[in-house]
Structure prediction request, 548 residues.
Amino acid sequence: MLEVQHITKIYNPGTVHETCLFRDFTLQIAQGSFVSVVGSNGSGKTSLLNILCGSIPVESGSILMDGADITKVKEFRRYRRMGRVYQNPAMGTCPTMTILENLSMADNKGRPFNLGFGTNKRRIQAYKDMLAPLGLGLEDKLGIPVGSLSGGQRQALALLMATMTPIDFLILDEHTAALDPKTAEIIMELTAKIVQEKHLTTLMVTHNLRHALTYGDRLLMLHEGQVVLDRQGEEKRATQLDDILGLFNAISIECGN
Amino acid sequence: MLMTILEQGLIYGILALGLLITYRILDFPDLTVDSSFPLGAAVSAILTVNGVNPALTLLAAIAAGAVAGLITGFIHVKCKVRDLLSGIITMTGLYSVNLRIAGKANVPLFAYDTLFKNDFTKALPAWIAPYATLALILIIALAAKLLLDLFLKTKAGYLLRAAGDNASVVTTLARDQGGVKIIGLMIANALVSLAGAVLCQQQRFFDISMGTGTMVIGLASVIIGTNLFRRTSLIKSTTAVLAGSILYKACVSIALSLGLESQDMKLVTAALFLLILVAGSVRRKKVRVHA
Prediction:
């Protein structure tokens, strides 16, 4: 379970640009749930992810992972149990390293990065088996640098890398936003499959309202640092695109977008 | 002249291997090298004077260089000082440390056995003797290159490359990218310091000013090497950098033989470096136009 309790997040504190995003914000994400988060720009979606991962600090309040307070735990330590995929496909992979090298590194997460050989040759077949179902032809390109792949291919790889080793939480930061519609569908299908297979507690920020409705078992809409819509289970399944589109438009007009 | 070029080129090649780590792999403009190079020389010289086996002084120099890298890394990562300034701080401070270690600005080793002039090399047959120094330097440079190649294939090496390539990957792998950077700086400066020690053993003196311009020489070698051989993926960047260093020394040597005096050396070094940088960017533009 992931929780944020009574957090306050202020940007540019002490300056004329001071903006308070979250004030006494509390949210619980239950074990095994797949939460989609939507909201307009500046609603606090990405800030929420950054706060959970420790990429940005909070002014007050606490962040809990399975009940343990991780507010002061450094970002890199939190990733021991978390995977994260970013909006920019370039963020999740190393461009000058080959697919094989990238996968080998991801495969070693949680174990020491010592002077043992970086690539375990016995794992190569397993990597190929992992890449083949994507239908992107990556399984035959293990030796080429990731920098020469397309955005969709890199994002698929980033998703595989983030979820390769046993983790409990998956953080998806608009991970299909930079892809063409067809590739975005492929990545979403893959995401759903991985989340289901590995029983990951998932938080997905997206601008695609249809994805938010189709995938996941809970839907959140944020607006100016507050939850304005929270539907789960049967209630979420009954929700239609028009319902949330209406609310989305209403709050967007209100703040002038 | 060819022998001198090869000897010097390979010695500075070890230095370029270090810069390959900081500039190419970590993308860290590390100015520590201007002082960690003479640091290795100072350590090697003073230990040689005190009767330590010259080969062992090289190991001491490696350790000293690693400490210099550790300091720069610590200043950058833990004190959050900008990369360029962290290097400058260590470089400036080390100047005094180097003087303290050596005791004075110049330590001649002509009266002592060195790595390249000792009872063993004196006993070599006359036809081998002129090549002994070069052979030994070649062995050291190749050993450094092969060890670095091997390291870059290990898990720790992968992480080092990832840190320069895309540091956020290191973080999401639940590793501290700061720590990885520090290790990279330690290895790089250890190599630079080793180069300084080997040069000191070869020229048989330590001079406090021998570090000035080290960074430019090393970086020029890295850029020549990686630019010349970038199309041939068969040649590893470590090999390319050693070749680049030899080429660079050859260029300087040609420039000096065209009538320039030895006091013009640094000017030639700087001008050549500028030429390489400009030539490199012109070529990149051409590629872009054709693409």
